[in-house]
Amino acid sequence: xxxxxxxxxxxxxxxxxxxxxxxxxxxxxxxxxxxxxxxxxxxxxxxxxxxxxxxxxxxxxxxxxxxxxxxxxxxxxxxxxxxxxxxxxxxxxxxxxxxxxxxxxxxxxxxxxxxxxxxxxxxxxxxxxxxxxxxxxxxxxxxxxxxxxxxxxxxxxxx
Length: 159
Ligand SMILES: CC(C)(COP(=O)(O)OP(=O)(O)OC[C@H]1O[C@@H](n2cnc3c(N)ncnc32)[C@H](O)[C@@H]1OP(=O)(O)O)[C@@H](O)C(=O)NCCC(=O)NCCS
Fold this sequence. Notes:
CATH architecture: 3-Layer(aba) Sandwich
Radius of gyration: 16 Å
Order of helices and strands: EHHEEEHEHEEEE
Oligomer: single chain
CATH superfamily: Gcn5-related N-acetyltransferase (GNAT)
Strand content: 35-45%
CATH class: Alpha Beta
Number of domains: 1
Shape: globular
Structural class: alpha+beta
Mean pLDDT: 94
Largest sheet: 7 strands, mixed
Bound molecules: coenzyme A
């Protein structure tokens, strides 16, 4: 049985999120940036939280009109490989199916675990941004998941 639940980020999570962020990324978001996002109506950050409140992973999404931009998704090293990222991404995909035309994100070509995660959930490579990342410098692969939506006639369309 899973020993965590998905909850919206609140202030109590920010210290641990920023710590995980530092361990995972060479240009991490600061505690202040996460705190700002608490008050941004376009942003939602969900947390995989253990019953004692500990943060095991998190994922952030900006939704602008019907476009969804996944900013970050990360899981604590000692809790990887247990399906936590699957659950976090799955929550955004369910939201996207109901509300968005697509979800998109950037990922380092060297980040095989993340690329496999996105493939597993139906994302496809749609482009590349040259030298997008620093430390170390690397291109970004752009991956997108488009949602089929019902048009006025009730038939499904892929937009
Ligand atoms: C990428 C990351 C979020 C995956 O988290 P996780 O909770 O361990 O992933 P899950 O256990 O939910 O695995 C889901 C799927 O991801 C892929 N995956 C996860 N770890 C993998 C690995 N080491 N190698 C290859 N594929 C992997 C697989 O497709 C897996 O599905 P499967 O178990 O059916 O094969 C985690 O490795 C992480 O936090 N990395 C550092 C931060 C990061 O790079 N984030 C992405 C930025 S774009």
